[in-house]
């Protein structure tokens, strides 16, 4: 037996699924493009990078633990008091804080499945019980079934919109109707990691929803459109009691100074304009890719994210390997399907080529 053989690790951890990150691109020419983690194909905007580099020079000091400058700016952007913004190392960390703040041993968390693969890990690692409600056959949230899954033990419900990895989003009306059926003591988190890629004409009005419902929390990230995945920063917009609870359970000094400063710089007007152009470019690429795939005969769920989902069922592993061999790294989800990030133009061209070759094989 090894030296740590007798250490007691909580048995619950044995049942947890592993988080499998997207494979990196390789420099041997086989996996030329990475389209497996829904990252931005663009590096951070220059002004944002410069701000982070400057902040790095002061890294002998701890960052502002309260991230006040950033929270003030985010509060202004969302029309809430800074005390209603909770920041941590990525929105996945904020989701973990939320679980720790409201879910006790044996309490239930309801979410759609498939959805973001961190949810079962966050819930299970804190002693909560996942109640996974299957998506509809068009890969959308089944809100009827989710409402029916609420019990006395339900403490948290997560709505992921647009849903990772399948792509469909919920409408403002759907969410409002759902919320009318949720008891006021149950927290509803709306995970909007991909919000900026949504068709602006139909994007869900979460600001209004948040104002109308005391149990709603919005989860946002700087990892996707803002291109700061490697810096790790995200936040919640929450009502004061819950925001305070999040700040109580979060890791002290979680978000680094360069991350806070970069996030703050991302909110500047001229940077926002550049990011809006990038979002539009990605939406245009998504349309181009989905049109080409439809031409090939593919029927994909309607995606409002920076990714598309191929519902290839048991062929998922083989399809991802097929793409891998042809230079494009995708992500397979068990026997459900394969997700491809809308990435740089050449990668998107390659995706179209590979998807066509797969159908003809
Ligand atoms: N929510 C969803 C739905 C996601 O897909 C992701 C990233 N894959 C996150 C949250 C996590 O983002 P962050 O990098 O901010 O932790």
Would you mind describing this structure in some detail?
With 361 residues, this protein is of the alpha/beta class. It folds into 2 domains: 23-38 and 270-360, Aspartate Aminotransferase, domain 1 (Alpha-Beta Complex), CATH 3.90.1150; 46-268, Type I PLP-dependent aspartate aminotransferase-like (Major domain) (Aspartate Aminotransferase, domain 2, 3-Layer(aba) Sandwich), CATH 3.40.640.10. It is built from 12 helices and 12 strands. The chain has helices at 46-56, 68-78, 91-102, 118-125, 143-148, 172-179, 206-212, 240-249, 257-266, 269-295, 316-325, 345-360; strands at 33-34, 85-88, 108-113, 129-134, 154-160, 187-191, 216-221, 234-237, 307-310, 328-329, 331-333, 337-341. The strands form 3 sheets. A 7-stranded mixed β-sheet has the order 2-8-7-6-5-3-4, sandwiched between helices. The longest helix has 27 residues, at 269-295. The chain binds 4'-deoxy-4'-aminopyridoxal-5'-phosphate. 4'-deoxy-4'-aminopyridoxal-5'-phosphate binds next to helix 3. It is an enzyme of class 2 (transferase). Keywords: Aminotransferase, Pyridoxal phosphate, Transferase. Pfam families: Aminotran_1_2. InterPro entries: Aminotransferase_I/II_large, ArAT, HistidinolP_aminotransfase, PyrdxlP-dep_Trfase, PyrdxlP-dep_Trfase_major, PyrdxlP-dep_Trfase_small.
**CATH architectural designation of the largest domain:** 3-Layer(aba) Sandwich
Reported by name, the CATH topology of the largest domain is Aspartate Aminotransferase, domain 2
Distance between the termini: 50 Å
CATH class of the largest domain: Alpha Beta
How many runs of DSSP E, i.e. beta strands?
12
CATH superfamily of the largest domain, called what?
Type I PLP-dependent aspartate aminotransferase-like (Major domain)
Computed over alpha carbons, the radius of gyration is 20 Å
Provide the low-confidence segments as ranges. none
Mean of residue pLDDT values:
95
Q: Helix fraction?
A: 25-40%
Strand order, sheet with most strands? 2-8-7-6-5-3-4
Ligand catalogue: 4'-deoxy-4'-aminopyridoxal-5'-phosphate
Q: What about the largest sheet?
A: 7 strands, mixed
Measured by DSSP, the beta-strand proportion falls in 5-15%
